[in-house]
UniProtKB/TrEMBL annotation:
Native species: Panicum virgatum
GO function term, MF aspect, one: enzyme inhibitor activity
SUPFAM superfamilies: Plant invertase/pectin methylesterase inhibitor (SSF101148)
Database matches in InterPro entries: Invertase/methylesterase_inhib, Pectinesterase_inhib_dom
Residue ranges annotated for the Pectinesterase inhibitor domain, each copy included: 41-168
Name of the protein in its database record: Pectinesterase inhibitor domain-containing protein
Coiled coil: none
Gene3D superfamilies: Invertase/pectin methylesterase inhibitor family protein
Amino acid sequence: MATAMSIAAGANPKALLAAQLCATVAASSLPGSSAAGASALVSQTCRVTSNPSLCLELLRSSNRSDGATTVRELAVVAVTAARRSALRARMRAMDLSHGAAGGGGAVAVAARCVALYADCLRAGAEALGRVSTMRVHDARAAGAVSALRRFPRKCAGLFHARRIASPLEKVSRETEEKLGVASEIVRLSR
């Protein structure tokens, strides 16, 4: 919406500019505005996932969701955010694998988890590429994102098999949950 502004002699242009800025900000919060539309899209999308609050957290972690106009764009944001969670898990595993916390067994298992999360990040990059370039719903893209959940599960399983309390349990569970919600959003992008 473009408006013409004529400045009368003696009028303060800064005050007029401030008034126009206020009007623009107020208009952006109206239901028909793109910002409100993006929020509505995020809310509508998250409402139909298995974990709406986690979905909102995932999508609001990036400003890109504010500008999203399609569920596919939200799917890209969700997969990117879930990959960041996998990166945090890998960094945590790396810290544990270099330390003496938890003893030798936990250090060795953490080192194996580092490799698992590296594989997860590589596969996640491929899945993100699929989601980013799909023009229509692609079940293979949703499957590729969903398959990423196996990496945090395997890491948790390594600790469980050795009967060691996992120092990565929380971060692995969060990563798996975020990957699950991301895969649901990809499935919704029909």
